[in-house]
Description:
Elements: H1 15-28, H2 43-52, H3 82-101, H4 110-121, H5 132-148, H6 160-165, H7 175-181, H8 193-197
Helix pairs in contact: 1-4, 2-5, 3-5, 4-5
Amino acid sequence: MQDISNPQAYGFLTKPEVQFLDAAVERLIPTDELGVGARDAGVTVYIDRQLTSTWGMHGRNYRSGPWHPGTPQQGFQSRLTPQEIYRCGIAETDAHCKQQYGKAFRLLAAEQQDEVLKALEKDAIALPSLPAKLFFGLLWRNTEEGFFSDPMYGGNRDKAGWRLLGFPGVAASNYGELLYSQTTPYRVEPVSILDIETGRATLDNQGNPKHQPVKAKN
């Protein structure tokens, strides 16, 4: 596992790809008055780790064809691996931006970046190697995963996504009882798997975390 404290240790993404994704995920889940957005929550690090893994190479998928167009009910049907989708999708979207706006995606104004992302979602940009909506769909799915998954996977830094939702993370032993008896919001400091593995969480005799109330802001 890579050291989360060193988010620059990318295993697959190049510097231009990191810059593209930092800009893209920040438009998908932007920083606002409620908290940090996807970029500062480490979503690009999460995506890189997924792409470096067996999943990124489709190491466990059947990949010998035939390659007929699938139906939505059949799920993922592309011969491209996630690594290939990101590499081609980023490069070809950047090429479109340079032709359309005269600069790379990361250098566009926020409104222009939104235009590009919406066009990708609607399959309104003709990318040479893959459908635009295929690239956008994977990007959006991974952005959601990275923002709300356990921080041990590289995203959700400082549990930003969980704090936004009020999600407690790893359940305490009495969480099931509280779920049905609690009449007020259950406001506790979220606990991650990484907190337990590194000894940062206080555990009960069964090894479950003891949730601590959120400290009131002064």
